[in-house]
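Handout, section 4.2: multi-component inputs.
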Amino acid sequence: MSSVPDLTGAVTCASIWKSFGEGEAKVDVLRGVNFMAALGEMTFLVGPSGCGKTTLISIIAGLLAPDSGTVSLFGERLSLLAPRERILFRRQYLGFVFQQYNLLPAFTAAENVAVPLVAAGWGRENAIGKAREVLTHLGLAHRTELVPQLLSGGQQQRVALARALVHEPRLIICDEPTAALDHRSGESVMERLATSAIHPDRAVIVVTHDSRVFHFAHRIIEMEDGLIRSSKKIESLNQP
Ligand SMILES: Nc1ncnc2c1ncn2[C@@H]1O[C@H](COP(=O)(O)OP(=O)(O)O)[C@@H](O)[C@H]1O
Ligand SMILES: [Mg+2]
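Output:
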């Protein structure tokens, strides 16, 4: 019966259920998921295609409502906030990289990345300047003025990542962030995420199949068929 929020967890999910469809076609995609991502850590969520990973992180990010169960971010139950507060909380504290990137097609790379800053009240010039800086860090200095259609899949993936990082949110959630990247670009993206995660008041959640980058994980949580199957703390394996 404790109502004290868990302040050590960046994200705490308790007994999350989610189904899609109705009647005969109803599928229980999440079947009572308990999940925690700790502050200062990179938490990897792994598991076979279709096991519910994207559904779970969409619920954590507040893009999808669970049928039952609770989600807390930094001790705050988002579903209990007023709609306006919830929008502001998500805008300020959350960066999300979608599997399909979801870049705005009529905007340049720099303009896409500037969106969270403009939403936070930055002036356009400053926002574009900061966006170019983050894109340059991710190896895209020569691509900042192009629209997404003129970029490769890997370049679009890095633009989506830059957009999730630019406002330095406390929680970054990435869905398969290295899927379209070669080994070197994948490593540099993970290094950038690791830099965000080392802050004691921040956290990163990465959904991935990519075993080449598992050495960046502090914890690997394995999902199967709508349930968490195991959660392993990785001890010092990620030292060079
Ligand atoms: N909006 C939706 N409507 C119906 N079924 C869905 C929807 N989203 C996901 N599913 C189903 O839920 C299951 C889990 O999907 P998903 O969370 O995307 O898995 P993963 O990311 O692990 O591959 C899949 O069987 C998928 O077809
Ligand atoms: Mg998925």
